Automatic annotation (TrEMBL):
Active-site feature positions: 178, 279
Annotated source species: endosymbiont of Galathealinum brachiosum
InterPro entries: Aldose_1/G6P_1-epimerase, G6P_1-epimerase, Gal_mutarotase_sf_dom, GH-type_carb-bd
Name by which UniProt lists this protein: Putative glucose-6-phosphate 1-epimerase
GO molecular function, one term: glucose-6-phosphate 1-epimerase activity
Signal peptide: none
Classification via PANTHER family: APOSPORY-ASSOCIATED PROTEIN C-RELATED, GLUCOSE-6-PHOSPHATE 1-EPIMERASE
Length: 307
């Protein structure tokens, strides 16, 4: 990866006019990133993993949380932002030596389009084609598959992950957009919209339980909520983050709390108090089967409302 690659990206996709700016540069760890600015918002996205590192709507504080101790290196996922878990979620179902949450978040994605929309938003698209992966990675997922990731950045943040089965047999895909939200003080934050839903409680041996009321965070929480399609909200003292989704039947809620966070090494001192992951995807009972020649779209939209 060198300056010529960045120059090529800017020549093909870079823009700067009265509508906004799309600019590529070398980021931390010598990993290319794209900076996006328009009248509605700004964003920073790493080309490795098509990983959103920042989204800040106009007049709002940063919505996406990234650890101060995050490590930026080729082939490694960044702690924070919006990692893409694909084509499986969590540990691989048959081989636990394969990387947790798949490989999409640690490989370079190709940019296919970037433009300013008449709405004032900016849209950028990335693609990952498994046929172009190295041999080691392809051994973990030999299926002929592609993932198109379309991001629309403005007052809201719209994310579309489209999985296409290019092979001759059905595939089973697990996925999630593993979003770390900047919540300020997680102990004063609640998640609304999951009352009555069944969930798998990882810290308690994946026991199946039922949610009662809103979710508050005062200890480790690591749960996969099943059959969830309704709108959710993350509410803190100053603002509410509203999550709408389609093509997703799982919601993962995660905060490691103090003891687990201290063992992780890259969450930063006290970082767990400022972040909360509420992930939209398809995991556990909700994994997706895609027939040959067909596709599946996971769509999530985030918007911010002041309290």
């Amino acid at each position: 990866m060198n300056a010529l690659y960045i120059e090529e990206l800017n020549q093909r996709f870079g823009q700067s006019d009265d509508k906004g700016q799309i600019r590529f540069k070398m980021g931390k760890g010598d990993i290319p990133v794209v900076e996006i600015e328009n009248e509605q918002a700004s964003a920073l996205i790493s080309c490795q993993g098509a990983h959103v590192l920042s989204w800040r709507p106009d007049g709002q504080e940063e919505v996406i949380w990234v650890s101060r101790e995050a490590r930026y290196a080729k082939g490694q996922s960044v702690r924070g932002g919006i990692p893409i878990c694909w084509p499986w979620f969590g540990a691989h179902s048959e081989n636990t030596s394969f990387p947790a949450h798949g490989f999409a978040r640690t490989v370079l994605w190709e940019i296919t389009e970037a433009c300013q929309l008449d709405s004032g938003e900016t849209q950028i698209s990335f693609i990952l084609n498994t046929s172009q992966l190295d041999d080691t990675t392809r051994k973990t997922w030999p299926e002929s598959t592609s993932a198109l990731y379309v991001l629309t950045i403005g007052h809201s943040l719209k994310l579309e992950l489209i999985t296409q089965n290019n092979g001759v047999k059905a595939i089973c895909v697990g996925e999630a957009l593993h979003t770390y939200f900047n919540v300020g003080d997680v102990s004063k934050t609640s998640v609304t919209g999951l009352h009555g839903k069944d969930y798998l409680d990882k810290p308690d041996g994946f026991k199946r339980k039922k949610q009662s009321g809103d979710i508050g965070i005062d200890a480790e929480v690591d749960r996969v909520y099943l059959n969830t399609t309704d709108e959710l909200s993350i509410t803190g003292p100053q603002r509410k983050i509203v999550i709408s989704k389609q093509g997703s039947h799982s919601t993962i809620v995660w905060n490691p709390w103090k003891q687990v966070a201290e063992k992780m090494g890259d969450l930063g001192e006290g970082g767990y108090l400022n972040m909360l992951c509420v992930e939209s995807g398809n995991a556990a009972d909700d994994v997706v089967t895609i027939k040959p020649g067909e596709s599946h779209t996971l769509q999530v939209v985030y918007r911010v409302e002041n309290n």
